[in-house]
Amino acid sequence: MSVSLECKKVKRTGFLPSFFGGGILAAAVPVINMAVRSEMYLNQQGSPIQILLGANWQMMAMLNVLLVVAGSCLLYHTEYADNAMQKMKSLPILESSIFFGKAVLTAFMSLFVLVLEAGAITFCSYHWFEVGSGFFGELCKYFGYSLLLMLPCMILSLLISEACKNMWVSLGIGVVCVFTATMLPATNFALSLFPFAMPFQIFAGADITRSTYYICGAIAELAICGLAQLILVKVRRSFE
């Protein structure tokens, strides 16, 4: 019920166009890079997916995270505009269910963006490289891992947007977090667990242990953010 309601709400915002446009832009990154500088990558060792993501994923992940931040701000801006959230509280709807509906919708649109990017990687692999028989299994593994690592960033962005009634405040906090994540050293595992830094990680088939740690970290951060959302709702009600 809450998910279908959220889908109706976003028709009045730029949420869907932003994800469509941003997804196409992110998917165009590897295609343009290979069209202009293909000679730099054709002689590298490794599978086509590893080469392409190694060359383009930082920019693609940056666009993905910025889309999540902007989308989260748009979703909650509609709730706080004209005191819509106050009106929603008078209905028999839990605030947590509203948050869950927005999370599911954002996750679905993030999946849509990753599918576009996977399509671009597939095109580049077939056009410029020799593709093996296990290509699509490897592709699903890489992008499934990317979706999982994006979820903590998505939930935290929604939590920040829920906490800040002013959209520009939540957007500013999100942008600062994104650029802070880009400055953190990738070699430091503890710092790379920062939710806004995790989407920049690429699945390392040669280092399954490290990838498993990131998966466990993402699940733990999802649980922490979910608990923080419940606490936020109760604290806010006590001050209203």
UniProtKB/TrEMBL annotation:
Keywords: Membrane, Transmembrane, Transmembrane helix. The keyword Transmembrane helix applies. The chain crosses the membrane at residues 15-36, 56-78, 99-122, 142-161, 168-191, 211-233. The keyword Membrane applies. This is ABC transporter permease. It comes from Acutalibacter muris. The lineage of its organism: Bacteria, Bacillati, Bacillota, Clostridia, Eubacteriales.
